[in-house]
Write a structure and sequence with these properties.
CATH superfamily: Alpha/Beta hydrolase fold, catalytic domain
Oligomer: single chain
Largest sheet: 10 strands, mixed
Structural class: alpha/beta
Shape: globular
CATH class: Alpha Beta
Number of strands: 14
Length: 287
Amino acid sequence: MRAFIVFSLAGALAGFAPVHALTKSIGCGTAGTFGRRIERQIEVTGTTRHFILDVPKGIDAEHPAALLFDFHGFGHSGAGVWSVSEFRKLAESKRFVTAYPTGLPIKIELRGQSHTGPGWEMEAIEGNRDIAFTRAMIEEIGRQYCIDLDRVYATGFSNGAFFSSLLGCEMSDTFAAVAPVSGGGLRSACKPKRAVPILIHHGTKDDLITIDRARAGRDQWLEANGCQDRGKPAPSAPNCHNYDQCAAGVVYCEEDVAHRWPAQATGRIWSFFEARTRSVGRAGNPR
């Protein structure tokens, strides 16, 4: 269950909304189609790709809105994530558009066995069909709706967490921040064009993607973002550690759960995103 709980992690997650010059998409001034579950498809390199859009009331053609991508886990779908996502409760009051994409078949190893199902390519960067899909979605959504291109974010669960982390690395010039949940380390060398703020959640009882893999992923991002400190517990959530002496901040949270989306994650993630843009890594602090 994805529950909405607001946390203030010593200013690391929440803060005053950053002030920045809006980078409007070309869709500003265009009246797009509004609805809480809009099925869309686009052609990407000859393949039809599918995603669901949540465009709540309050989104209009004149005031740029943030754009969130929520990537499903292996074997699932955008429709499935939409049906359980707590981001739907936040989207109207916080004024953001959410895209719930669906992956194509991939092969992965789980507990020593090979499985095939919908998912995201998380190994290669060159020729990655899902990075191309993501770029195409941003372009298409930005053409049809008024989007603040400085406030584009990615989160995801499990296989989707690996992919959202990869996007933070490869599309650092596009995503303001990323927040993988129950994923692991980067599968490719991370050399982002700009440091990207990241919030990581993982369960200590996860036996599918172990906590050691999550900590290794954290360490990769600490190196990528040039962090110089060992982190400190957040007073309001001691299971989370803030790393602030970085080119862009890292927040790492461990929960007493198995391979699942922690109840606290949704609220934390949006508070984290809300305080960050491409030009402001943390509220008030240029990155």
